[in-house]
Amino acid sequence: MNSRPAEGPEGFVYQCRLSLSSVTVNLVADLIRGHLKKIRSRWRKLGPGQIVVIVLAVLQHDQRLYDMASGNDVSASTVRRWVLEVIGLLAARAPRLDRALKKIARKGGVVVLLDGTLVRTRRRTGDENRPNYSGKHKVHGLLFLALTDEHGNLVWISAAKPGRSSEITTARHNKITAHLREAGLGALTDLGFTGLDDDPDDPVVITGRKASRGKPLTEAQKEANRLVSRERAANEHGFADLKNWRILTKVRMNAKHATALLRALLVLTNAEVSR
Question: Over 50: is that where the pLDDT of 9 sits?
Answer without folding.
Answer: no
